[in-house]
Design brief:
By secondary structure, this protein is an alpha/beta fold. Helix content is 38%, strand content 16%. It folds into three domains: 1-34, no CATH class; 45-74; 76-218, 3-Layer(aba) Sandwich (Rossmann fold). The mean pLDDT is 95. Residues 9, 12, 15-17, 22-23, 25, 28-30 line the site of one iron/sulfur cluster.
Length: 218
């Protein structure tokens, strides 16, 4: 019987699974789930999944290198993405960027091209579609129903048509990023997400005072 309040690894306390000791927490999913470990292992036998898992490990290993005897990250996420693509043999990369992240998009495509990738890029406001065309009410518009709206489905379709082998999301809004990911045929990795308040550092409010009262209470 599946408990509706399950799984809740956030309540575990020690994450013993990291060191091969899962299950001290009484509701540890690895103890009580109806999904068996063998079934999940079987899923990873899919050759495509296997290659991605092996590549992810290789990239992680390449990033964490000993420096003065301490394992230290030696490259940023952008370099990890390129290393991942190299490893996978992916030559053509799509960049789906937000108007607000246009500068980032321009710089990112330069870096990708300099490393020898073929790049396709699509901004979010393509087709200049208006919010009114989507039945978005005036109350939900910033100024009016005539303002342009993001078009993540088209971003995905254009990159699908271009045959990109990996798509990078850059600063798309909440929701638009979901639609892009759902409609992209290629795997999607996110380089940045839009957070208008935190200069795209969305976890900052968890460490600033923003949610402090809530975090103290619960
Ligand atoms: S030990 Fe179990 S409950 Fe705790 S984090 Fe790991 S899987 Fe979740
Ligand atoms: S959608 Fe058209 S106008 Fe907008 S950034 Fe791309 S090329 Fe320029």
């Amino acid at each position: 019987m599946i408990n509706l309040d399950f799984p809740r690894c956030d309540r575990c306390g020690d994450a013993g699974c990291k060191v091969g000791e899962p299950g001290k927490f009484k509701s540890c999913p690895t103890n009580v789930s109806e999904i068996k470990k063998e079934e999940i292992i079987e899923r990873y036998h899919d050759p495509e999944i296997q290659v991605l898992m092996q590549t992810a490990a290789k990239v992680e290993r390449g990033t964490l290198q000993p420096v003065n005897g301490v394992l230290t990250p030696i490259r940023p996420r952008i370099s990890e993405i390129m290393a991942f693509a190299d490893q996978m043999g992916w030559k053509k990369i799509g960049v789906a960027f937000c108007l607000a992240a246009r500068e980032d998009g321009i710089k990112l495509t330069k870096v990708l091209e300099a490393r020898g990738f073929e790049v396709c890029s699509v901004i979010c406001r393509n087709f200049s579609m208006k919010k009114g065309e989507f039945g978005i009410s005036k109350d939900d518009c910033i100024k009016s129903e005539n303002e342009t709206v993001c078009n993540p489905v088209y971003q995905a379709e254009l990159l699908n048509q271009a045959g990109t082998q990996l798509n990078i999301v850059l600063g798309l809004c909440v929701g638009h990023d979901m639609l892009f990911t759902k409609h992209s045929k290629a795997y999607v990795t996110t380089l940045s997400v839009k957070d208008r308040m935190t200069a795209n550092n969305p976890v900052a409010p968890l460490y600033s005072g923003f949610f402090a009262e809530i975090l103290k209470k619960y």
